[in-house]
Every structure is written in structure tokens, then in C-alpha cells.
Specification:
By secondary structure, the protein is mainly beta. The chain has helices spanning about 25-30, 115-125; strands at about 5-10, 10-15, 35-40, 45-50, 65, 75, 85-95, 95, 100, 105-110, 130-135. The strands form 2 sheets. The protein has an 8-stranded antiparallel beta barrel. A hairpin with a 7-residue loop joins strand 6 (about 75) and strand 7. The radius of gyration is 13 Å and the shape is globular. It starts with a strand and ends with a strand. About 35% of the residues are buried.
Length: about 140
């Protein structure tokens, strides 16, 4: 089942909400759809991209937070030790900031488009910031 369409540059992914794990985060983020931003490559976390959100407050705390997401497991970090952000791993990732390992809420899991995770990540790495859109599928 897919709930969300995510478009990053020329790549499209379908994903499902992780509402059993992070109900408050999913509910709050769903209200923002369609959500448009820029995505850039991570600094410390490995093979992932991220959306830096500064001091943005989604109004949620930590829920079932993890530091080691798998490729396609999208995290929302509500802020605290580092700035608020969304992490979009495309391969090996340990979620970190300049202060060390942090953990984020498992917001979405990619259900279709896995074959484009690495190409998406490499495009962001080598070509820079890309447009990203989250919308209802």
C-alpha cells in the first residue's frame, strides 16, 4: 500500500506512512501535503540526503526514533541537539549531526522506486540541491 508520492528531481517514489510507529509525526506531516522543499546531500550520516528545516517546529516529539534507518526509510528529526530535518537514506546510513549520533522518527517507508534510490542520491551528491515534493498518492 502506498500513501505518498515523493518526487526528487526526475525520480518518483511511492511510500507508506509509518503511522503505527509514529502516529503523531505522520498525522502532523500529512497536514502539510503537498509539501515542497529542496533536498541536499548529508554532511555526516553516510549515503543519504536531507532537508534542513532550521528551527521549524512540527509540534511533535520523539516517537520510535532510530539512528540506523535502511535505504528508503525516511526519518523526521524534531530538533533538539541539532536542527529540525528530514533524512532520506539511499544506502548505508547512521544518522548523525556535528554533535554525534542522533535519532529520528520513522515517518515513511518507500514501497516503490527502490531502484532509483541510489541514482537519486548520486544526483543530489554530484549535481547539488534538487526539488522534492511529498504529495498524496
Amino acid at each position: 500500500m502506498s500513501d505518498v508520492r515523493i518526487t526528487v528531481g526526475p525520480y518518483e517514489f511511492l511510500a507508506r506512512w509509518e503511522s503505527e510507529r509514529c502516529p503523531k509525526t505522520c498525522e502532523a506531516f500529512e497536514k502539510l501535503l503537498p509539501y515542497r522543499q529542496k533536498i541536499i546531500h548529508v554532511r555526516w550520516s553516510g549515503e543519504a540526503c536531507w532537508i534542513p528545516l532550521g528551527d521549524y517546529n512540527l509540534g511533535v516529539g520523539f516517537e520510535d526514533a532510530t539512528s540506523v534507518p535502511q535505504a528508503g526509510e525516511i526519518l523526521f528529526y524534531p530538533g533538539g541537539y541539532s536542527e529540525t530535518e528530514i533524512l532520506f537514506p539511499y544506502y548505508g546510513t547512521v544518522f548523525k549531526s556535528k554533535l554525534g549520533v542522533i535519532a529520528g522518527n520513522h515517518l515513511l517507508t518507500v514501497t516503490e522506486g527502490h531502484e532509483n534510490l541510489r541514482p537519486m542520491g548520486e544526483k543530489v551528491l554530484w549535481e547539488g540541491a534538487q526539488d522534492i515534493v511529498f504529495e498524496k498518492a
